[in-house]
Each structure stands twice: as C-alpha cells, then as structure tokens.
Amino acid sequence: MIKRIFLLMFLMLQFSFLYAGIVVLNGLTHTYKVENGKVYKGKVSIENTGNTLQSVKLFLQDFSYKADGTISYTAMHTNSRTNSDWIKLNTNLVTLKAKEKTDVFYEITIPDRPADSGSYWSVIIVEPVEDIKPSNDKAGVNITSVVRYAIQVITDYETERAKPDLKFENVKIEKEDGRQTAKIAIANNGNLYCKPTATIEIYNRKTGERLGSYTSIQMGLLPQTSKSFHIDISKVPAGQYKAVLIATDEDENAFALNVELEVKND
User: Fold this and answer.
1) C-alpha dihedral over 221, 158, 116, 186, to 10 degrees?
2) Rounded CA gap, 74 and 128, in Å?
3) What range does the domain containing 76 cover?
4) Are residues 139 and 198 in the same domain?
C-alpha cells in the first residue's frame, strides 16, 4: 500500500512538472501617445515555463468592463472606439520549446484622420493551444482548460483635446476577507484613458471632525467603462458618518461627491 501511495505521488508530481505554462513577460497594458498617419511598433514577449513543446495563438478582440465585475471580450468592431483595424501582428501562431522565450511584434498604423480625439483600444489575446486527446474511459474527447492573457493596446490621440470624466455610480460598505471595505464604483464617461485612485474622507456626523482619510490602489479606467475601487476602512468604528468621495487621476484632476455613510459591526 505504501509503495502504491509513493508511486501515485510520483506520477502526480511528474505530470505537474510536464504541464506547459505560458507567461507574458512585458506587461498586460501597452499605451501609446499617437499622431495621425504615423506607425508605431510594439511587441509581446512570451515564455514557455513548462517542460514540453507548446503552441500559442494570438488574435485581436474588443474589450470592456463594468464595476459589477462583468468583463466582455467581443469580436472586432463591436466597440465604437476600437483600434483593432490599426494593429497588425507579424504572426498569429508560435511554437515554443521548453523554457524558450520569443517576441511577437506588431505595428499600429494610425489613420490620417481618426474620427475623434481621445483613447482607442483593443486587446491582443495570447492563448495556449492545447491538444484535444481521445478519452480511454468514455466516448468523446477530453478538453483541457487553458489560461489566456489579454494585453490591452491603448492609443491616445490628441490628448490635449480629450479628458476623462469620472462619475461616482455608488458606494457600498461590505465585509471582504473579514474587513469592512468601502466599494466605490467609478465610471469614466469621458473619452480619455486615465489611472485614478479613490479616496474616502470620513467625518463625525455631528461635529464635522475629520476622522480619517483612506485611499485605494491606482487602477486604469478606459472611456465608457467602470470599476469598483476597494478601500479598507476596518479601523473606522461602527456608526453613521458624513463622507467625501474623491477620485483623482494621474494628472491631479479631482472629482468629489458628498455622501452619508453607515458602518456596521457585522
């Protein structure tokens, strides 16, 4: 029995080491400040961290998201501000040996007259190609799930004529990982990509005394999308408060809103 257990453990470890893992080495957001009629070059750096040969396909899709966690990957041209027609990959398929790295290059050709100033974007999908193997146990095939990457390619055109327009959609106080957390939904109703942070300043409801200021991490926000910014406020005692929500982008543009806030014990 003990020998069988050790054999099973060995086979499981051997199988896990044979699994091919693909990673993107140079980031998942590529941004360019562009001018009309010009060509820009970029690359996607990929590594096969596994011990077996691995094929990878690359293709373009449109992309959007909402504060409720919805993420949409859709066909090209479904987003009115897509730049997918501007991007050309030098290949759609690469095969990597174990531990091998490679670069897939792309070019972005900006039209002579884009329709509007502001940000245009799409994503390059990097997806391992898994073999579909016949099943020995039952009719049909076994399909292995894979992890794929979405690399945002954002082109900012005539930024001096464009701007973000941040709006607060709602704020909720909820327990997350055992901590009271302010979840602030912020939408970018403008036409320019930005990277805001959210801050909540909390005041005593009766005296107006400021009790503290708490800030989220910075996150990118595309035009006509929204995200939920999470802030740990577990140090704030239960009670009812006045609060100011502040969204500040990387250019120090600030958007504020006064709200009433209730923090509960549970």
Assistant:
1) 20
2) 19
3) 21-161
4) no
Cβ atoms within 10 Å of 231's Cβ, excluding its own: 21
Report phi then psi at 109, rounded to 5: -105, 115
Residues 44 and 132 in one domain: yes
pLDDT tens digits, one per residue of 5-33: 333 333 333 333 334 589 999 999 999 99
* Conformation bin of residue 9: beta by default, left when phi > 0, alpha when psi is -120 to 50: alpha
Six token digits for residue 177:
């990982």
Residue 154 forms beta bridges with which residues? 31, 121
CATH code where residue 214 lies: 2.60.40.10
* pLDDT tens sequence across 217-227: 999 999 999 99
Q: Is 188 left (phi over 0), alpha (psi -120 to 50) or beta?
A: beta
Q: What is the DSSP letter of 85?
A: G
Name residue 230's beta-bridge partners: 183
Q: Which residues of 174-193 are buried (b: 16+ CB within 10 A; e: fewer)?
A: eeeeeebbbbbbbbbebbbb
Nearest residue to 80 via CA among 59, 58, 64, 66: 64
Q: What amino acid occupies position 172? A: K
3-state secondary structure of 159: helix
- Residue 11 one-letter amino acid: L
